[in-house]
Amino acid sequence: MTDQTLNDRALRAGIIPEFRDLFGVTQTATDETKLALLHAMGLEGDDIAPTPPLPRWHVCEPGVPVALDCPGDWRLRLEDGTETEGRGALPALPLGRHLLESAGARCWLLSAPARLPLPRKMWGLMAPLACLRSPDEGGIGSYDDLAQLAEGVGALGGAFLGINPIHAGFPVDPGGFSPYTPSHRRRFAPLYLPTATSAPEAGPLVDLPEELPARMQALEDEFRAAPPGSAFDAYLEHEGEALRIFALHQALSEKLGAYWDSWPAAYHDPKGEAVRQAAHELAGRSRFHAWLQYKAEGALSETQHRARASGMDLGLYLDLAVGTHPHGAETWEDRQSFAFGASLGAPPDAFAPQGQNWHLAPFNPAHLIDTGFEALALTLRQQLRFSGALRIDHILGFERAYWVPDGDLPGAYVTMPRDAMLAIARMEAARAGAVIVGEDLGVIPDGLQHALEDSGILGCRLMCFEHTGDPPWYRAPQDYTEGAIASFSSHDLPTWRGWRSGREITLRRDMGITPPEHVEGMMSWRGREVEGFDGATGPYRDGYAPETPEAMASLLAQTASRMVALQIEDMLGLDNQPNMPGTVWQYPNWRQRLPTGVAEISASPVLANCARIMKRAGR
């Protein structure tokens, strides 16, 4: 293969030849990286296909004639299976994904509203579901705990309750607990199903090696004590083959291990003979795992119902992880939708000078387009069944995704079909009547935020970063983006109290992440940040001391952003953040119990004060 052929193929596949990193250095994709990424996409051949007479996808609006010229006779298969034929102008289409065929070419017509309506001004609370049970209560937070908290927040005027991803994880591997490294994003975690069982001697941290087996055993006891009836059988029939494969994967995991790449090769193919034989042998275990999904979906439906009944506009605000584990249930079931031989990651920056490998399987854009973005649509639709709002983690990946090839090779950016993916998000949100939030933090590609704004997809604004200059001058609340959700920080950043003291700076020093010689300068800068923020809250805090959460909430409430989120750690005055990026076992990520239970949180004087502040601001 000549260099020119390789470069042409890489460009056609969307591999970006070079980019400028945060240090201003131009990073160039090597030939080895290009070859590795083409292989991961399944595009190894030398042939470059001729340009087809139709685009591979086209975005249109429901009820508006499709502005696309067909080269001759055409056939149209609508999403509901209806087929029509014609010649010349194409008709107006309903909402959905429709397939057009003409002159031997195929084009997916993505019929979606041009823009989603923005929500009214509102506020809500963010909380860590797994940690909702206090040390005195023990156990893992449950969907019932979540419903109770939603009712408490709804009674105070909150419009939503946000949580981390609740995708299906790895029950046989308590170490694989990160909500952002799921096994399957269209299935839900059964470990949050309520049971009366908890591990003994509960402490300040959720002890997953103890808690997870205890909860799973309690669920199995329930399953055996009261066999499911006809409603479960109807659910099985409705869910069909996809649920059967997922449940079989879970049963095989109990026998062979959590990750399918470590299984004997005969079990790597869900359609292989060894797997077919195992399906008969493990029928009982598969039925149990299917029942867990039935129970989880029922619990989520009930939670959302209770949240809305409490007066919440949106109810649950769920979170969609940017990728999936490369060897979990999702990739075992749907191998072709993902690129193998590369992982999602991030280029070099100040926190990770060598770049980051997130060890997440990326969507394969070639297959995504060929299937009319089916995997993305189904994933969004499943999350929106049980929520009024959905956060899409790292939506920068809709524009371009940083792929890190396996082996010791540098990464490169891969262009994604942004406009089509945004259309799918608008389509599924319109079906559900829901709000979409795109987490647009970090190095933002040119044009992405404008595209989000044009789509009515909300961005994210963190008050702790909304400043310029030295000493820092904080953005005035009226200058915040309207189409956004604003908050002080996030689960990956310091709490309000921790930020003021520089808690994460000293923790990162103590863990050997931050060089000690940098700490003095960082702490000095933090002091100037705090001083600047206290000046910004001055006109709004209505007598509250500058260090109080109410002072911060007073400024947050006045922002122009339609949604604002309070964080439960700030309402409870906690020092430590839920997650410390760049750590695995050095920090108790996602496992720190809240000091009080749901009833006490709902009755928190600080939360009540902040609710009154929000109400006075028209939220």
Quick check: average pLDDT? Answer: 95
Radius of gyration computed on alpha carbons? 25 Å
Strand order of the largest sheet: 18-15-12-9-8-23-22-19
Report the principal-axis shape.
globular
Pick out the low-confidence regions: none
Report the portion of residues in β strands: 15-25%
| Helix content, binned percent | 25-40%
Biggest pleated sheet: 8 strands, parallel
Q: Topology, please?
A:
Layout lengths: L2 H10 L5 E3 L5 E3 L2 H11 L15 E4 L12 E5 L5 E5 L8 E7 L2 E7 L10 E5 L16 H13 L4 E3 L4 E2 L15 E5 L19 H18 L4 H27 L16 H9 L1 H27 L5 E6 L8 H5 L8 E5 L9 E2 L7 H6 L3 H11 L4 E4 L7 E6 L6 E4 L2 H15 L2 E4 L9 H8 L3 E4 L4 E2 L4 E2 L9 E4 L8 H6 L1 H8 L5 H22 L11 H9 L5 E5 H4 L26 H5 L2 H12 L3
Helix pairs in contact: 1-2, 3-7, 5-7, 10-11, 16-19
What's the short version?
With 619 residues, this protein is α/β, with parallel strands linked by helices. It contains 19 helices and 23 strands.
Describe this structure as you would to a colleague:
This protein is of the alpha/beta class. About 35% of the residues lie in helices and about 15% in strands. The protein is built from 19 helices and 23 strands. Strands 18-15-12-9-8-23-22-19 form an eight-stranded parallel sheet. Strands 3-7-6-4-5 form a five-stranded mixed sheet. Strands 14-13-16-17 form a four-stranded antiparallel sheet. A hairpin with a 2-residue loop joins strand 6 and strand 7. Helix 1 crosses helix 2 and helix 5 packs across helix 7. The model has no long low-confidence stretch (mean pLDDT about 95).
